[in-house]
């Protein structure tokens, strides 16, 4: 019914920036990393994002600097293209269409006009097999070029980018896959393969995890699953090859990298410690500990002055070679699971959800940047397998953004359950949340749902617990606790026929509270705590409940586990309509009447957007993503999207974000919106990336003023007379140290110019 | 197959001595090994690592360094003497005092003309090697501090000497030190301790490699006298060093029991610029690795944990074969136990004493596999300390338990043993003059004769009686071989005597016709490790170091049909790959077709009436056979019945009451008697 081509599911920020190894530009000023479909360019000194290189339509899987022009970068993607970018201006220069999924990209300085990519093996039914091929880049002009000239180099390689490495001067390429290391010599065109045993009596696990090659010597370093690092030498011999072993990491070595001079080997793993091995000095090593999270990738700037580590919590740490951390770029932290709902902080419009263990993160979707972390649990996190951690399981923010409620939970065995309900007040002066009330064991069982009332005067929190009660909490002054201000306390405990409440929901004005008890929905008046009405639609328990908004506020919507979506009219207290859809997630848009319902259908998830008052959906899309959708949220837009037709009208004031099964944050974008972005990025002319030095100030301002004077002359408008002492040129001249000044002849001319009174002024 | 009552003997407290030094003779492929108690052992690497010769030690002689000069063997020790050995008579030939205090090291130049010894007083003494002896030539300039290690340059004009805190390079011609290279004392906590340069090696490109007590391996340029690289391999001492013949790699041994290999590798493949790179690390030992040898395809290491480990370097090996797998040699390849079958007594030989034990008795009969109740505990009847400083080289107890004989390098003693109520022992006086010392002793089955193998492969026959002992005859081999006899076997009927010597010859003598030797078994290329004469058929059964089995009919003077069949069909691959040599042969009196062999890890009953296994069939098939029915079992059975229940066997014999005696020495017992190893930090402890 709706042309779905208009609306596309897109990755929208919050993507993994630790997916592949970041690269640092030759001058160490920018850091490039792949983030979903885009390549982000960050400044290494300010952590600020400078550009987003957008153009790929699938995951970017490889990123390398162009060896013949260090201001250009190649990127490859699963969409089967290799693109060449000018990253200083953010311009796409060329697209090479390969036509196969590309899993990795390598560039060798000694192979001009050729890049190396990893493709799935053709002609084999086995999709797990990959090959490393040399791709000859045709020299033809034009923005899009078909590149079909490929030459197989190594077969049966691993698709993981860090398992392949080019050696000294591009003479050879080493690639590890499983238990085998393959080395291909380009000059001899010969492959040597070395195998290790899977394990031995001492419990070694020899599977390769990563490979790095020494820049000057013929030495290959390989990392292994059990934490060993092997340094291979003499690998041009079938038999007399040899390796030495170093062992510091206690579990798998995730990343290995040599410094450009080859004096140090950097390695990292789950220990969150960057280990610096001195090359050739045996087991002498240095450490950079406490990096916060497991190291996934390591890269080093081409001049060796910056080290850069990607971490498991979607973070990139840039440190100087003196081991001082200079920048931390933090993306959206995504764990294995997400326990809290996705929330939108009304003040910052940031996405709030679980971040690091025991924390809530505030993530700005607009800037694709983490704003801050709120430590909820306030306990030391100990990394150990099988240890039960305190986890934040529920969070809620009231409509004004002044109160935050969190629930943390720790369960070691079914009998012992620790639940703490915490309420946090927003402090204007420090611009962050502060703990106001901590209630331990707010319920006897787990807290299943929690919501704030929308009422601005008296904010009320309702929690439902597995113990069969729902509790209302109010902010109240305590006479006995002096000077501590108001704190939260329980106002009402409700139950219904000893059933277990599962969901609760306030109406938009806060006058009604709906609580789902099993298959019964009860509607209460929060002011009097009177049970107003009950609805039930057996069989099937209530899964989601929400009130309609704005013009549809007379409706209460509920979904049940038995594939029913029901809409009750609160005025007539009757069922308005119902429909048989297996809705797994029902999400109201706070700014409109629209509701989004995700329904499960044979391995994928469908989306319906509808108004409760209208039986026909506004929008529907089948197979939004594979697997189920975990969480979804409507985030308000900064500005209302113009030019929406009927089918995309629901996207005009807010955007729908959802988290897929693989913890990917996706959104919906319209075509017109994308066109705008692409158009704007092409026009974007970036200010000179020349560093702001005194020299620049002097010359740059001079040029500017020159341009101004020209303009003024041409337009014959009255220009103000610049007094000599007030002229910026003279001020710069006097304030700049002599040794950085340009030559005197140049300055003299300028100085005299500044003293001259323009003609127009005289007239 | 056969059920036996087994005496499981675990009270033989045999304790091998730690390995101190070793030297490999490439031409003869023999390894000379010096132990802490002064024993020298010679292993033949051509012949399945068989322990060919053992020269028993002496309390007053220690072996600090051992050195081959062509086929001659020299040792030097802390008693200040250089000793050359007579490898045919297995005794020291002569000793020469160097007059420099204790000697720490000895090294021979590549030309084989001079020996250099390093002494406690800081002097390096040169000895000229003459055909029959050595002669002191001169001293190099005397320095302060002991000389712990020496190495000649290939040209023979320079010597590197490892001392305390320094290495000196000497010019041999002038005797002056040309360079003095100071060795760093290591980490700050060790500053007050002298750094001992345990080993040096002088390579032909004027590189000196040193290992020292602060855990460093250093590579020096001896032409300039400067340090080129340092590798820290251990937190404690690096005690041993061995360089490969082509000087492309070397190995060092540390006191943590590890062996670390270094290789001389090109930085750029195919390039000329090379550097020493640490490559592999092995941990063959638990204690100090005191001795190392690089033999081209393998690294041989020995240390205080008493075992000799031959570890192949797989990158140098072309085909995997018996010689190219890891070997660990724990026990001597000769029997230290002799058994009085009739009296049920065991004689245990230690270097310094003999012990006689009477076996215990058990009650009743049980099912196979049961442990029987011990009615009477085994009893230690006698502990006999040797006289003199020389260690016991061989010993024997007569089958009746009435006679006991042992020999050292210098003397042979025979005792009369009576043990009815009270144990009494009396030395037999007035032994015949010919009995000076013996390499092997044996009694005849009726205990009336003593056979003593002496020098020049001679065997003396002594008749024993209550009143006197008389020299009856001396057998001399026709071949005129001078190799020592290491195995003697007398037939049960007292007619035949077989003697095997280290030259792989086996001579058979007729004890009834003393004049002429009966015959000689055709010489086989591998040394016999065990032999026995069948009690009824008088066939001589021989097992060689390469685990080949021969049966020779003494009467017919030819190999038996079974032996020919074995040679024709070949033995099973798994049998030929067994790690340790067979050290004893016993015959089953109940079944004339069966005999028993044992090595360290198994014993095996071979039934000559059954077909031989071929390489396709399952060799260790006992468990499979058990699950089969009677008829099927017959079709699957083959001649070899292996039993691996008893490990670390030192002896296995049959008593006259047809019970088996199994003497075990578990390695854990040996390990528990060793001093505590160097403490190492282990992860997560």
Descriptive report:
The complex is a heterodimer of chains A (763) and B (685). Chain A is mainly β and 763 residues long. Chain A contains five helices and 57 strands. In chain A, β33 and β34 form a beta hairpin. Chain A is globular and about 85 Å long. Chain A starts with 6 loop residues before the first strand and ends with a helix. In chain B, a hairpin with a 4-residue loop joins β23 and β24. Classes of the chains: A mainly beta (763), B mainly beta (685). At the A-B interface, β22 of A face β24 and β25 of B. Chain A: This is WD repeat domain 75. Chain A: One of its GO terms (biological process) is positive regulation of transcription by RNA polymerase I.
Features:
heterodimer, A: 763 residues, mainly beta, five-stranded mixed sheet, four-stranded antiparallel sheet, 5 helices, 8% helix, 46% strand, globular, disordered N terminus, B: 685 residues, RNA binding (chain B), UTP4 small subunit processome component (chain B), UTP4 (chain B), WD40_rpt (chain B), WD40_repeat_dom_sf (chain B)
What is this structure's SSE topology?
The complex is a heterodimer of chains A (763) and B (685).
Chain A: E1 7-11, E2 23-24, E3 30-35, E4 38-43, E5 49-53, E6 60-65, E7 72-77, E8 81-86, E9 91-97, E10 104-107, E11 114-120, E12 130-136, E13 144-146, E14 150-157, E15 164-166, E16 172-177, E17 180-185, E18 190-195, E19 208-213, E20 220-224, E21 228-233, E22 242-247, E23 253-258, E24 264-269, E25 274-278, E26 285-288, E27 295-300, E28 306-311, E29 315-320, E30 325-330, E31 343-344, E32 351-354, E33 359-364, E34 369-375, E35 391-397, E36 403-413, E37 416-427, E38 432-440, E39 447-452, E40 460-465, E41 470-476, E42 487-494, E43 501-506, E44 513-517, E45 520-525, E46 530-536, E47 542-547, E48 555-560, E49 564-569, E50 574-579, E51 583-588, E52 595-601, E53 604-610, E54 619-626, E55 629-636, E56 654-660, E57 665-670, H1 671-683, H2 694-715, H3 728-735, H4 744-755, H5 759-762
Parallel strand pairs in A: 9-13
Antiparallel strand pairs in A: 1-57, 2-3, 3-4, 4-5, 6-7, 7-8, 8-9, 10-11, 11-12, 12-14, 15-16, 16-17, 17-18, 19-20, 20-21, 21-22, 23-24, 24-25, 25-26, 27-28, 28-29, 29-30, 31-32, 32-33, 33-34, 35-36, 36-37, 37-38, 39-40, 40-41, 41-42, 43-44, 44-45, 45-46, 47-48, 48-49, 49-50, 51-52, 52-53, 53-54, ...
Helix pairs in contact in A: 2-3
Chain B: E1 5-9, E2 19-25, E3 30-35, E4 40-44, E5 50-55, E6 65-69, E7 72-76, E8 81-86, E9 91-97, E10 103-108, E11 114-119, E12 124-129, E13 134-139, E14 149-152, E15 158-162, E16 166-171, E17 177-182, E18 197-202, E19 207-212, E20 216-221, E21 226-232, E22 238-243, E23 249-254, E24 259-266, E25 274-282, E26 289-294, E27 298-303, E28 308-312, E29 327-329, E30 337-340, E31 345-349, E32 353-358, E33 361-362, E34 374-376, E35 379-385, E36 392-397, E37 403-408, E38 412-419, E39 423-427, E40 440-443, E41 449-453, E42 459-464, E43 469-475, E44 485-490, E45 496-501, E46 506-510, E47 517-521, E48 528-533, E49 539-544, E50 549-553, E51 558-559, H1 561-569, H2 573-576, E52 584-587, E53 594-598, E54 603-607, H3 622-627, H4 630-636, E55 640-643, E56 649-654, E57 659-664, H5 667-673
Parallel strand pairs in B: 1-57
Antiparallel strand pairs in B: 2-3, 3-4, 4-5, 6-7, 7-8, 8-9, 10-11, 11-12, 12-13, 14-15, 15-16, 16-17, 18-19, 19-20, 20-21, 22-23, 23-24, 24-25, 26-27, 27-28, 28-29, 30-31, 31-32, 32-35, 33-34, 36-37, 37-38, 38-39, 40-41, 41-42, 42-43, 44-45, 45-46, 46-47, 48-49, 49-50, 50-51, 52-53, 53-54, 54-55, ...
């Amino acid at each position: 019914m709706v042309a779905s081509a208009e609306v596309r599911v897109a990755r929208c920020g919050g993507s993994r920036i630790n997916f592949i190894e970041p690269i640092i530009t030759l001058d160490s000023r920018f850091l490039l990393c792949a983030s979903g479909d885009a390549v982000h360019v960050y400044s290494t000194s300010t952590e600020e994002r400078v550009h987003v290189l957008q153009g790929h339509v699938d995951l970017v899987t490889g990123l390398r600097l162009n060896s013949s022009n260090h201001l250009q970068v190649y990127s490859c993607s699963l969409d089967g293209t290799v693109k060449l970018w000018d990253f200083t201006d953010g311009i796409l220069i060329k697209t090479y269409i390969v036509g196969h999924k590309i899993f990795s990209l390598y560039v060798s300085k000694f192979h001009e006009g050729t890049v190396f990519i990893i493709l799935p093996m053709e002609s084999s039914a086995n999709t797990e097999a990959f090959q490393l091929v040399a791709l000859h880049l045709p020299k033809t002009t034009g923005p899009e070029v078909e590149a079909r000239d490929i030459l197989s180099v190594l077969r049966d390689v691993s698709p993981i980018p860090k398992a392949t490495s080019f050696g000294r001067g591009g003479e050879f390429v080493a690639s590890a896959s499983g238990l085998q290391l393959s080395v291909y010599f380009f000059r001899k065109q010969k492959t040597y393969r070395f195998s290790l045993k899977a394990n031995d009596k001492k419990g070694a696990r020899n599977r390769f995890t990563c490979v790095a090659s020494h820049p000057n010597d013929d030495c290959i370093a390989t990392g292994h699953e059990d934490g060993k690092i092997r340094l291979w030498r003499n690998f041009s011999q079938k038999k007399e090859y040899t390796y030495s072993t170093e062992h510091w990491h206690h579990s798998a070595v995730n990343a290995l990298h040599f410094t450009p001079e080859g004096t140090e080997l950097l390695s990292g793993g789950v220990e969150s410690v960057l280990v610096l091995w001195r090359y050739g000095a045996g087991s002498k090593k240095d450490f950079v500990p406490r990096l916060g999270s497991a190291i996934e990738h390591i890269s080093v700037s081409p001049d060796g002055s910056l080290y850069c580590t990607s971490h498991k919590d979607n973070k990139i740490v840039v440190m100087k070679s003196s081991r001082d951390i200079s920048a931390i770029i933090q993306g959206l932290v995504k764990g294995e699971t997400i326990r809290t709902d996705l929330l939108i902080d009304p003040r910052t419009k940031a996405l709030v959800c679980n971040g690091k263990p025991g924390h809530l993160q505030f993530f700005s979707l607009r800037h694709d940047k983490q704003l801050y972390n709120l430590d909820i649990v306030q306990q030391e996190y100990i990394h150990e397998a099988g240890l039960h951690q305190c986890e934040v399981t529920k969070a809620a923010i009231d409509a004004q953004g002044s109160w935050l409620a969190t629930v943390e939970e720790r369960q070691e065995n079914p009998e012992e359950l620790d639940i703490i309900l915490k309420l946090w007040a927003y402090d204007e002066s420090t611009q962050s949340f502060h703990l106001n009330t901590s209630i331990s064991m707010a319920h006897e069982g787990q807290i299943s749902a929690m919501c704030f009332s929308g009422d601005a005067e008296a904010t009320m929190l309702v929690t439902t617990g597995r113990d069969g009660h729902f509790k209302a909490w109010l902010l109240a002054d305590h006479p006995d606790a002096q000077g501590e201000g108001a704190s939260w306390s329980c106002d009402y405990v409700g139950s219904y026929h000893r059933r277990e409440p599962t969901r609760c929901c306030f109406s938009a004005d806060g006058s009604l509270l709906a609580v789902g008890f099993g298959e019964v929905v009860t509607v209460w008046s929060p002011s009097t705590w009177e049970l107003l009405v009950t609805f039930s639609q057996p069989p099937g328990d209530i899964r989601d409940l929400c009130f309609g908004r704005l013009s549809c506020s007379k409706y209460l919507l509920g979904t049940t586990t038995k594939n029913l979506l029901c809409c009750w009219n609160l005025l007539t207290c009757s069922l308005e309509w119902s429909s048989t859809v297996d809705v797994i997630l029902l999400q109201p848009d706070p700014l409109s009447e629209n509701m989004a319902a995700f329904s499960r259908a044979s391995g994928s998830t469908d989306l319906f957007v509808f108004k409760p008052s209208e039986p026909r959906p506004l929008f529907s899309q089948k197979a939004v993503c594979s697997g189920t959708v975990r969480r979804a949220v409507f985030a308000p837009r900064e500005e209302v999207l113009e030019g929406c037709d009927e089918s995309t009208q629901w996207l005009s004031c807010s955007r729908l974000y959802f988290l897929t099964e693989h913890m990917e944050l996706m959104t919906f974008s319209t075509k017109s919106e994308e066109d705008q972005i692409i158009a704007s990025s092409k026009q974007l002319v970036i200010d000179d990336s020349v560093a702001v030095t005194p020299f620049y100030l002097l010359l740059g301002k001079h040029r500017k003023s020159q341009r101004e004077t020209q303009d003024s002359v041409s337009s014959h408008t009255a220009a103000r007379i610049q007094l000599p002492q007030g002229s910026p040129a003279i001020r710069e001249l006097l304030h700049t140290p002599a040794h950085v000044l340009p030559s005197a002849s140049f300055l003299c001319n300028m100085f005299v110019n500044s003293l001259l009174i323009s003609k127009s002024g005289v007239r | 197959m056969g059920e036996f009552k087994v005496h499981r003997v675990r009270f033989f407290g045999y304790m091998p001595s730690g390995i101190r030094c070793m030297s490999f003779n490439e031409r003869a492929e023999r390894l000379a090994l010096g132990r802490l108690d002064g024993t020298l052992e010679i292993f033949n690497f051509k012949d399945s690592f068989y322990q060919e010769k053992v020269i028993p030690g002496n309390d007053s002689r220690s072996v600090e360094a051992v050195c081959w000069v062509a086929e001659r063997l020299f040792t030097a020790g802390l008693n200040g003497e250089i000793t050359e050995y007579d490898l045919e008579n297995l005794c020291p030939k002569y000793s020469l005092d160097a007059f420099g205090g204790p000697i720490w090291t000895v090294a021979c130049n590549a030309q084989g003309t001079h020996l250099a010894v390093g002494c406690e007083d800081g002097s390096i003494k040169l000895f000229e090697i003459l055909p029959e002896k050595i002669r002191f030539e001169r001293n190099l300039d005397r320095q302060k501090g002991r000389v712990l290690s020496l190495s000649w340059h290939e040209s023979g004009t320079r010597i590197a000497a490892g001392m305390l805190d320094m290495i000196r390079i000497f010019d041999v011609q002038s005797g002056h030190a040309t360079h003095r290279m100071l060795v760093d004392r290591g980490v700050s906590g060790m500053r007050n301790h002298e750094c001992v340069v345990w080993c040096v090696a002088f390579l032909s490109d004027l590189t000196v490699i040193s290992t020292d007590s602060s855990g460093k391996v250093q590579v020096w340029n001896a032409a300039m006298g400067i340090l080129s690289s340092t590798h820290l391999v251990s937190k404690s001492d690096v005690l041993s060093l061995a360089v490969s013949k082509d000087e492309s790699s070397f190995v060092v041994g540390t006191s943590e029991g590890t062996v670390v290999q270094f290789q001389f590798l090109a930085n750029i493949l195919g390039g000329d610029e090379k550097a020493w790179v640490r490559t592999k690390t092995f941990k063959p030992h638990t204690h100090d690795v005191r001795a190392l040898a690089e033999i081209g395809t393998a690294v041989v290491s020995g240390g205080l944990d008493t075992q000799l480990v031959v570890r192949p370097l797989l990158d140098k090996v072309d085909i995997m074969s018996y010689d190219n797998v890891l070997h660990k040699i724990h026990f001597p390849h000769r029997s230290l136990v002799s058994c009085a079958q009739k009296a049920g007594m065991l004689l245990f030989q230690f270097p310094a004493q003999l012990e006689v034990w009477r076996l215990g008795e058990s009650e009743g009969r049980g099912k196979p596999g049961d442990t029987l109740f011990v009615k009477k505990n085994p009893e230690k009847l006698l502990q006999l300390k040797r006289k003199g400083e020389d260690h016991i080289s061989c010993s024997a107890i007569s089958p009746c338990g009435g006679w006991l004989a042992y020999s050292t390098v210098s003397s042979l003693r025979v005792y009369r043993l009576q043990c009815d109520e009270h144990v009494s022992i009396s030395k037999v006086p007035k032994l015949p003059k010919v009995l000076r010392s013996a390499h092997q002793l044996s009694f005849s089955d009726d205990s009336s004769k003593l056979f003593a193998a002496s020098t020049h492969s001679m065997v003396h026959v002594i008749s024993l009686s209550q009143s006197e002992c008389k020299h009856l005859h001396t057998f001399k081999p026709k071949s005129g071989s001078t190799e020592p006899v290491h195995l003697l076997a007398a037939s049960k009927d007292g007619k035949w005597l077989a003697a095997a010597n280290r030259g792989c010859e086996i001579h058979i003598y007729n004890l009834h016709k003393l004049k002429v030797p009966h015959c000689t078994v055709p010489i086989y290329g591998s040394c016999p490790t065990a032999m026995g004469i069948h009690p009824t058929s008088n066939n001589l059964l021989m097992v060689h170091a390469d685990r080949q089995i021969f049966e020779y009919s003494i009467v017919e003077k030819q190999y038996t049909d079974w032996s020919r069949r074995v040679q024709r069909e070949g033995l099973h691959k798994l049998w030929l790959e067994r790690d340790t040599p067979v050290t004893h042969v016993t015959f089953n009196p109940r079944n004339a077709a069966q005999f028993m062999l044992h090595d360290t890890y198994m014993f095996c009953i071979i039934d000559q009436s059954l077909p031989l296994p071929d390489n396709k069939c399952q060799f260790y098939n006992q468990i499979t056979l058990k699950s089969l029915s009677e008829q099927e079992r017959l079709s699957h059975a083959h001649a070899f019945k292996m039993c691996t229940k008893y490990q670390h066997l030192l002896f296995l014999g049959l008593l006259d009451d047809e019970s088996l005696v199994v003497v075990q020495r578990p390695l854990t017992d040996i390990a528990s008697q060793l001093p505590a190893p160097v403490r190492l930090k282990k992860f997560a402890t």
